[in-house]
Amino acid sequence: MSVKETLKKFIPEKLLLTRALIIYRHRVKTVLKNRRREAYKTSEFPKGVNLIGPLKAQMGLGQSCRLLANAIKASGTDYTFQNFDLIGNVQNGDTSFDSEFSKDTPYGINIIHMEPTELMLRCTEFDENLWYKRYNIAFWLWELEEFPNEWVPSIDLVDEIWTPSEFTSESIRKVTDKPVITIPYNVTAETDPKYDRKFFNLPEDKFLFLVMFDANSTMMRKNPFGAIEAYKKAFGPDDDSVGLVIKTNNAEEKKLAPVKKLFEGYRNVYYITDILEKKAVNSLIKDVDVFVSLHRAEGFGLVMAEAMLNGTVCIATNWSSNTEFMNKDVACMVDYGFITLEKDMSPYRKGAKWADANTDEAAGYMKKLHDDKDYYENLSAKAKDYIEKKLSMESVTALLNKRLKEINES
């Protein structure tokens, strides 16, 4: 698909002939021309990387960028960090890296942590010299086995792609001969004891399950309704020994109404709708007993990894990227079938397939974790130990440094 065809998908037809868009399309071509004009020359730049991405975004994409930034810092390579605020209904308030932001991009390798569509539409906002003689790496996430056709033209803007999982890497390798490298996250999940159950108005005496989703972007993929169905199969409305916590972002009352309707007659359902700082979110995950993710698909599954790191047992769909750091020895892995999308649910297209977790099996795990303390504590300890080793900073930085060395020596 051409750049022109891609633009038509995201910009109304009536705007396609405006002067602004003509200028924009010309600048995209200029970016491509500059990028292709001369290959990366290591001799012209000091060794290091410029990371450009949504370092302030308070959402999964921002956390992904911050984890990559931490790995770059720990790798020992020289670096600059340049924040790029996301547009739309996104909170850009994280301050973790504010003191390290730079407007300079002195190094020859750029790592651009930006979704393919946004990269295509906003690449012209970068200084044109950023592309000239540089080696450009895109860091992308994707959740399904087939990479979207409309994203493929974005590959022309970069020299290679990094992803956090082999599941995602394999999806992209189907549509390009350029290098696609898997660099997983080193997961951290710092908590603060002030964010205890009392802080969140949660009961101290109940066994709590947690479901999380963003009503703006991930509700259908995160599939909270599957977790809700499983919970209702496992526990009745009058069971006061348990409770379900539903943490949402961007959930207006009308978006929560279908969820609340499912719990008519249930007493122990708790809704948390505030945007929380990351340490508070981590603490909430640690405060509960079980995190439930009957997702349709994951590009990594960061919250599950964070839960495991804090000893919170996970019930999770046994499909997509999360299976690269989870198994039945350290989590409750739920079997699934596949369902086909009958209509577009942007960015997921009609005809694509994703998982449909078995809610009966999930309900069985819920009851077993609630009833069998030894089973719960064994899984909790194993999960924490496994994730610390599997996604250690040492292993992640070794992969990152190996690839940067290969680029600089090629």
Features:
Rossmann fold, 14 strands, 36% helix
What report would you give on this structure?
It is a single chain. The chain has 410 residues and is of the alpha/beta class. It has two domains: 3-186 and 393-409, Rossmann fold (3-Layer(aba) Sandwich), CATH 3.40.50; 207-390, Rossmann fold (3-Layer(aba) Sandwich). It is 36% helix and 17% strand. It has 13 helices and 14 strands. The protein has helices at residues 3-10, 19-37, 60-75, 116-122, 166-173, 219-222, 224-234, 253-262, 278-287, 302-309, 359-371, 373-390, 393-409, and strands at 49-53, 79-83, 109-112, 135-139, 160-163, 180-182, 207-214, 242-249, 269-272, 290-293, 313-317, 332-334, 336-340, 353-357. Helix 8 (253-262) links the parallel strand 8 (242-249) and strand 9 (269-272). It is globular. Mean pLDDT is 90; it is low at 13-17.
Share in helix: 25-40%
Rounded to the nearest angstrom, the radius of gyration is 22 Å
Q: What gap, in angstroms, lies between the N and C termini?
A: 30 Å
Task: Indicate the proportion of strand residues.
Answer: 15-25%
Structural class: alpha/beta
Q: In total, how many domains does the architecture comprise?
A: 2
Q: Can you list the strand order of the major beta sheet?
A: 2-1-3-4-5-6
Please write the string of helix (H) and strand (E) elements. HHEHEEHEEHEEHHEHEHEHEEEEHHH
**What is the third-level CATH name, the topology of the largest domain?**
Rossmann fold
Query: Which architecture name of the largest domain does CATH use?
Result: 3-Layer(aba) Sandwich
Number of helices: 13
- CATH class type of the largest domain: Alpha Beta
Tell me, briefly, the overall form.
Answer: globular
